Amino acid sequence: MGTDWAAVYEASYDQLVRFLYRMVWEEDRAHDLAQETFVRALRHEPDQPRAWLFSVARNLARDEARAAVRRRQHLTLVRAEEAGRVAEDAGQEMERTERHEAVRLALESLSERDREVLLLWDADLSYDEISEQTGLARGAIGTTLSRARRRLVEAHRTGEDQNATYR
Amino acid sequence: MPHIAEADLHAWLDGALPEESGELQSIQDHIESCPDCATRLQEARDLRDAARGILSSALPEGSAPSFEDIRHRAMGDARGPAEVGPGSGRMKRGWLSAQRLGWAATVMLAVGAGWIGRAVLVEKGWSDPFNEGQSPTASRLAEADAVADPARESFGDDAAEIKEESDELGQRKDQLVEANEAPLKRDAAAAGKGIASPEQKAQRERTYGDSPTDADDEPEAEAATPRRLGALAGAEAPEAEDLAVVDGVMAQDAEAFQQEDRARAIQPPLDPWHAIPAVRLGLTVSRAPGCYRLEYSWSPGVAYLPGTIELTGIEPEGRAGQSTYAIAVSGGAASELHEAIWASPHPDSVWVRLVSGEEREAFTVRAGRSGADWLGEGRVRVPAAPVSVGQTRGTVRLVRIRCEPE
Fold first, then answer.
1. What is the ipTM of this complex?
2. pTM, rounded to two decimals
3. Does residue A83 lie in a domain region?
4. What average pLDDT score do residues B130-143 get?
5. Distance (Å) of CA B23 to CA B35, B81, B253
6. Is residue A69 domain-resident?
7. With an 8 Å Cβ cutoff, is B9 touching chain A?
8. What element of type H or E holds B94?
9. What SS3 state is found at B229?
10. Are A119 and A21 in contact (CB under 8 A)?
11. Are residues A95 and A42 in the same domain?
């Protein structure tokens, strides 16, 4: 009650999209799901808006990711392509695609729990909020984040090395 | 005091230790007096910054709609059950229309960008091997293709092909948008009919705060009998030089060859159809006769074109240099494949383009000789994905096999 939803929207929309994008890897879908999450929030007016938003978004994204896998089992989508950007510099565009692909692959090397904790941290959620979202004890968040960061960096570095060799 | 736990170092860095607990000050004091922990703290900081940097290198683009739009949509959704769920609602429909228009624009601009990009590449010496006018190989292949099967579309008429594909993409985009919406509407309808139990509904309510969203299942590709596609004659009258001669020519022109390699090294990782050096196309049409099996693997969990793909390049007796290309496909790949074309513009290069699936994914492969085998990379581009161009990459191995008689 009494939530300034315009302020919440202003403060959280980008974070929510960023979080969702790393789960579904489609920019438009991430925006779509973020908007849907806010629409539902406005109708429910939860007491803890931010926690509620990420909780619903996380579940929507999980379903979305599963649906995407089933829908296109032969394919891993990486990113949405915007024509204006392509027109500016096709090479830059491909570079961006590969950069996102590298991050996606590095994230996929993490366990689901570690990945979620890392992405929630990256979306600027506090340890308390992450704990609430994931059910992990607050004291375990630091351990999980430490492990997840190390794994991400290592996997990303390995991917870069392989790419360099491959080229 | 024992050394600081790794978890506490990260929590300290993240500002997650409550000030009132005294732990914050205790750790601060310890770090100042313990060089080991100070070093570990720096390592943890570097790790955190590196992780943040990696994640920040894959940020989504796009801007938020106005809050008023979202608010109106929430109000609109509340007015009728038919409008519940993502991909619905008055504002949403308008947004989708805009999205469709945007998609059409994307296609046209992407095509335009492709032309621009290709022009740049051609100017730099790169050429499209299957574009008429750029490569004699392309036109010949297209002609041969048309002769072999007039019903198949030509690769030569780019303008018509682009327009046709753009129209198709627009239609598919609409279909996919509808397909995405369908399960959500179906769920909403099912909930309205009381299909879900009250417990299930309550659970969904807690979990999603609204009507459920379920995944849709699609049937897997059926295996099919083998078939042969696209017998293509590479008809540029090749010179009678063999591989050794070609290699010899290159060895004599070492400087030019090195320049070419340098140019290739800085070439952006574009679709291989735009990546064959023009100079090499000028040298040869096909210098890799023989039979090959294309082996490919993708990222974990990705199975693309399951089955076997074999490539054949032969030079019929009495038609020196007139290579005939063919692709034999079996397994699941056969049921999905629409178009197939391959060529070997250089003794060390093989290029394959396959178009398959309902969404007409373009599977492009480039492979280079590595000992007895060929190694390379393949890419899948999915033009019909919703407002997206999907792409994935895997490894490709082209294994030379014994040619079976017809």
1. 0.86
2. 0.46
3. no
4. 30
5. 19, 53, 71
6. yes
7. yes
8. helix B90-123
9. strand
10. no
11. no
